[in-house]
Amino acid sequence: MSKVYIPTQAAGALIWYMADNVPRFLLIQSRTGNHWAFPKGHVDAGESLIDCAIREVREEVGIDIANVMVSSYIITDTYHYPSWNHDGEHILKSVAYFPCPFDNKPDVSRQFLEVKEYRWCTPDEALELITHPHTRDMLAHFLEVYPVSRV
User: Fold this and answer.
1) All residues at 6 or more sequence positions from 3 whose CB lies less than 8 Å from its CB, including other chains
2) Tens-place pLDDT, residues 14-49
3) Angle at 92 between CA 89 and CA 95, to 5 degrees
4) I need a surface site. Which of 25, 108, 112, 143 has the fewest CB within 10 A?
5) What pTM, to 2 d.p., does this model score?
């Protein structure tokens, strides 16, 4: 029997600021899965990827990214996992991340229901802390192609 894939979209942000010439990325730990990742969430019906990223980041960590988001650049993390609701079905999730460089460290106000903890990490720390290999690969690729040091 072949797998049935149900596509779903999400959007989020790679948020960072520079400290001592080293980028510091914001990672959050999910309460539901305890995994470490970047702020993100599901796209609501009729919502654009940009609006979703702005909303989800504001909801999860209280940061307004609307004025710093580089909306012309998207890096995508695509992966699948078994659905918890449907027998034999898999979720095919595509997450659009927008770069969000800040001049200074933004204040974080985490949402306690969804976000267990947050950390500001150097690239090496982030690559070590991120739970899922596909997200680590996405960040590694982003660091190779995007000039994060030019904030």
Assistant:
1) 88, 89, 90
2) 999 999 999 999 999 999 888 999 999 999 999 999
3) 150
4) 112
5) 0.90
